[in-house]
Amino acid sequence: xxxVPIFLFFFFVNVQTVYAQSLLIKGVVRSAETKEGxxxxxxxxxxxxxxxTSGDEGWFYLKVPPAIKNSVLVFDHIAFDTLHVPIKKAxxxxxxxxxxxxxxxxxxxxxxxxxxxxxxxxxxxxxxxIDANTFNAQGYLDAGDLLQTxxxxxxxxxxxxxxxxxxxxxxxxxxxxxFNGVKLNSAYDNIFDLSTxxxxxxxxxxxxxxxxxxxxxxxxxxxxxxxxxxxxxxxALRFQQKIGTYASGEWNLQFNHNFFKRLILSATIKKxxxxxxxxxxxxxxxxxxxxxxxxxxxxxxxxxxxxxDSSEQHIALMYFSTKQDFENRYYNEExxxxxxxxxxxxxxxxxxxxxxNINGSLQWNNNFHDLTAEDGYLVRDFKNKxxxxxxxxxxxxxxxxxxxxxxxxxxxxxxxxxxxxxxxxETGLSKAxxxxxxxxxxxxxxxxxxxxxxxxxxxxxxxxxxYDQVINSYQNISYRQTNAPLPSLxxxxxxxxxxxxxxxxxxxxxxxxLNGFLNYGKNVRFPTMYQQxxxxxxxxxDSPEQNLVLERSxxxxxxxxxxxxxxxxxxxxxxxxxxxxxxxxYYNKYRIFYLPEIPVPFYDTVADxxxxxxxxxxxxQALGGLINYSFAISRYFISDPSAFPFKSDLxxxxxxxxxxxxxxxxxxxxxxNEQTGFVxxxxxxxxxxxxxxxMNLDFHLKKNITFGPLKLFSNISIRNLLEDKTELGGIxxxxxxxxxxxxxxx
Length: 746
Known about the structure:
The protein is mainly β. Strand 21 and strand 22 (353-373) form a beta hairpin. The radius of gyration is 26 Å and the shape is globular.
């Protein structure tokens, strides 16, 4: 059934050569120092009355008449040096960097609502970028702690340190976590532990909010978190040591070398650990101990002459592995996780045709859980292997942008669950071998309509189509029940076709930029292997096939972005405001619950559920970016808390940053409302449970010192300064924590 999409894919590849001379220039203007997108930049053709202004975070479109295609494109801004680029070069450059007329004294955090190159391929959505300078200045332990600072994200942390992300009131299994565009979620439960990601090798984290994305699969019901690794590093050797609360400590050694200006080799080794004692115990053995090891390596060959942001042609081989060992002496429990990922990516031309992005990956994900108690034991483990391939091709035809992609994936899951507890009802799967094959096709079309008015610059109309086919098969199935009717796991095939629509509007002048978007679409999510083995017959549900229906949704979002540059005699002040409203309707929403005294999760479905919400963020900077401050608020309306358990419906975030003389000072304040969850009783009814809301403050201070080729840096971070505590089973999840980091690089 894929022959029609494949035909269309190669048809678009061939017609590109006919229209290769399009004179529509599309790109982004950035600061050469901070990499921040610049709105309000005057862009015009030298000695001609053709021009435009960069819109939201630097993006612009400009239609060049053929008669002046040999002229020069000029980029002019009051705070930056003027840039001149020949039009013939500008058509292919895409990224234009301006040098500031003043130099910032140190790094600053860039958190912006803009669409970077990868995300620009998809429909317009609410997007947040957290730049690598934030990781260096704040000293967070892992990606989970960092993502908690975003207004739309709630981090769910287990007592064993596992951290998962929920976006806009949804559930963690509704979020796709990617590493350089490759999905990391386990085939078992579609969840990834963010605490295992090392931030030192990350260039930025892209957060897509909402489900109207076509490129990232049907599992992205709430959004996408894409971790982008650093390809080009500004050091040859770097060492870092961190110590802190809970006897925590970790060291990190990084190597990077550029051979012949095109071949780049890099490697990282990071090891660390911590120990936390139970608050209500005086025993010397009542503690939780965690050890983490992280290894990465990459080989990059640059096919272009430069290795900067505008370089889009390279071959990259990347590998990373994480190993986490968790030991709970109080409960005699052990958890071991091991993740490995190998990716090969090619960006460039094929047979003279440009715009190809081809990558393949091999992922291993092993998890082992052992718990021994006086009344029983539990041994659960799964081994997950995923092979995937992705072929993308993008091109232009006059004012149209096209993207077509083929996505293939094959997953193997070897599952084992041995458990005995005295007096417990025997439920669940004992062991099985699962296999899942996915075939996906994506097509995105964007129509750019430039205008001739001074303020209203252009309109985009975007349309995306996605087709998915999922095939499940099962082998070696064994259940723990002996005197109960057993469900049947039969081979299953699902298919879905999804169409989404969006529009984007941009306007502005020299000092003001106003942009807006709206999108609408439907989405389908396929049940995970975890959901398919959840034994619903325990609740006298007539058919175990109930859990195999597809979960569906339709969503709508509208957003607006406003920025203003104000020039005074002594300063340039940049003010920004972002507001968005969204609504998601769910059909056959999967709902997880637990029965008393049965430590096995079950699933049923909620026929109809809804989440809607309003998000707003105001930010400003002064003194040429030395001072940055912002305030954000998110308010959600959740129709059925049992389908979205323990989610805050109100979150407020405030940030203040000061950069001066090599110092970076940041204060981060946040507040989350109370959370409601439900536990199902044996009679089928739900009992409501509430967790109190909390408020806290983080403090970060960093100092950089440069001695010739050497750069020394140190950082102190105090998290939860107000010490608004939250405990889970005697282990503090939210309490005051202090971390000190120091390092050197060459």
